[in-house]
Amino acid sequence: MEVRDLNPSGASTMDAPAKDQSISNRKTNAEIAQEAQGLSMGKYNGTKVRIGSRIIRIELIKKHDMLPKDPAAQHIRDEVTKNIGSQWKSGTKDIIRGLSRSEEIMFLPNILGLKPEHANWDTATKEFWANFKVPVTAGDGIELEAGFKFKDNSAEEAEPISVDGYMSYQFAQANSNVANEDEDNPVTYTFRLIDTAQQDIKDEQAFSVRKIVDRMFNKLLNDADAGDADAVNTIDWIIETIGGDKGLGDTIYGMSGVKKQLEVEKIKDKSPVAFKEAILDKDLETKALIRKGVKYSKIRHEGTAYFIGNKAMGNGERQAVLWLNDPNNSDEKVMLIAAIKQYMS
Amino acid sequence: MATHQQSLELYAASFNDKEFSSSNHISKALLTQSEWLAPMVTHAFGSSALYGSRNFPLSFVTEGMGSTKKISSTDLSYKIAVMGRPKKTSMIAQTSYTAADRPGRGHTKFKVIFADRWFHKSLSLYSPSRIECRVQNDPIAVAGGWEYDLMLMSPSAEAYIPFTDVTAGAIWGRGVAKVGKERSRGVESRSHTPFAIQNQLSVVRDTYKLAGNVKNKVMVLEIKVDGKTFKFWTQWEMYYRQLEFKEKCESDLWYSEYNKDENGVIHVDDEDSGEVVTSGAGMLAQIPNTDSYSILTTNKIENLVTDIFFNASDADIVNVDVYTGTGGMREADRAMKLSSAGFIALGDKMISGEGRNLQYGAYFNTYRHPDGHTVNFKKLPLMDKGVMADISTRHPIDNLPLESYNMYCVDMSTYDGQRNVQYVSESGREEINKVVPGMSPLPDGYNDTLYASTDIDAASVEWMKTQGIQLMKPTNCFKLFCQFN
Predict the structure, then answer these.
(1) pLDDT at A25
(2) So what's the ipTM on this one?
(3) Domains of chain A: residue spans and CATH
(4) How many CA atoms lie within 13 A of A29 on its CB side?
(5) CB distance B294–A190 less than 8 Å?
(6) Mind telling me how many Å the CA of A124 is from chain B's nearest CA?
(7) What is the pTM of this model?
């Protein structure tokens, strides 16, 4: 028996007469995950990017200076110029740039008035970055728009909302005088970069995961209620692998169907990512078998090594899974399943 | 058997030559008349007339040229008063309007809240969209600012202030006070006061210890340096030590870090005395303007000088000295040669001489800024050979220390008869040089005495001075660092 998608396409689904026909029309878990991850994402220069505004704030790190501290002397402090300027790129004879070579070809011709085919292109781009600067003012600092939007008439291709903001952000990020948000050593850094969208991105990502997981959970329970044996088994395996207080597996012995579903809901709410990974895990059944084997002393787990009888299964759970899935060890696997079944009956 | 070569023999002989007069020895002068002779020492070091200005430019142009200030405060701190540009603007602190509002339309009064009480009744104000309004009342304190009643000067009943001009953060400027044609009252005035900034002196020391009879040991090989000939080891070492101390002091004037926190507390103590160790802000710590570069271009020089001097309080045309090392001098020359390549052929400038005695090489070291400022690139050996150069990473192309490429722009101008860069020391402790006699003969310049401070067969020479550097207008200076990311 192998673990696979709960609703695989092809013969196995069609061959399941007891299953509610509506189940087969639903999307697979893999499709659900793929579709949900694609939310608010666009394609920029061959990579996936988040669509939406992303305001980057750059502020001066508070450090001692010889200027008057009086709030009324703000205009004196405003006379100060602090620039994030050009630097050599470590380990190279090149300098830091705010755009990749392919991005330079996209955006710099308009700025430099030069085509990439021109003989002076390399010199002109290098000089452009040598002169590039991001001036940071005292007080609240500056804000840069580094987000992406969909290109006109495209639902997939993205482009920076502000090319200047995007390349200033990239340039600042490459500069060694600029600290990330959690770095604050005033003798090392002059500027601090704060991604105001970072929390939004984290919230969105967490929401996106929750959304996927909720759909997977509902589908799992619906399929189980409709009599899908795979779904019923998957509920057991999830509890046996990532259930319990420590998330290391729990026994399903004596649990009713409803109790199992409640337990899976707890797992899903407690750790949506672990739930999602478990449900997409092709080796979930084998892992459940190993956890049960260890729990009922049918498999010996010493340190990181696994043994069945006198035979070593491998070092680490991954190797133990491969060992059990190896057809050469099918006799041991059958005996293990029988022993566990006998123990639980 | 080979002939004995006396000149190659390495030996040390006792020597007691009275013709080695100590009257010319620099340490004697320091011992007896240190307070007023300290500036002279800066000049006297080395045989070259430019030695002091080249190697110790800060000491030279301040201490050496008499541009010094003496203080008497017990904690070695001092203050100077600075004044910025005249304040002409104020900022909108908050707004109650929305984009749909039309403030001031139909010749009506409208209210705005500024962050401070800088504007006063009757003043003409200019909004960011250059719309003239008149202040119609005395400002009233409200939560978060000062509330003003304004009226548009425009004769049009349709005119109003755009919403963006009354949103928080919008900067308004002041004009003149306009009053009624008769029986008007005088208007209020606003004044600027200078702001105080604080710095402190560092107390720096050095010690030369000698033991046994080393004073009377003569070297087999004479050491010639800076036009002097040294036969005695202690003479040479004393000279070297003083030069080294001078270099350390000069270095500290540039790189010293201020160590008093916002509450005036110094957290570093002297473990021997338990006293706090004061460390004043050196030149770099006082310069607030900062930038970095990789390849220098005239564009970079031009923009940076514009940024600094356009923003600075004093818009006078100034002579700017940019101190840099060999690397920075090269970069400046490269930048200017590259920029001028399109305009002039440098061939005849680069090659000089006649016949077979040709010379190649001519280098830029001055940049004339479009605003009239003159930027002089000056080589500072400290940046090639000083401590920061020694700990610096290497340039990716030329392999010189990166410190050699850093550029420290110092405004050496004189404002109102006062030099912008001032050397500061504590009155009475400008520079002290004493000897701690033991059983060892003392170095030349220090009178032998019957009394000893220790029974150990040794003696030591002690130097101590208080020093600090002060930029009167730090905003007129900048630091340009050549860095890796």
Answers:
(1) 45
(2) 0.71
(3) 2-189 (no CATH), 198-281 (no CATH), 284-345 (3.30.250.10)
(4) 25
(5) no
(6) 12
(7) 0.68
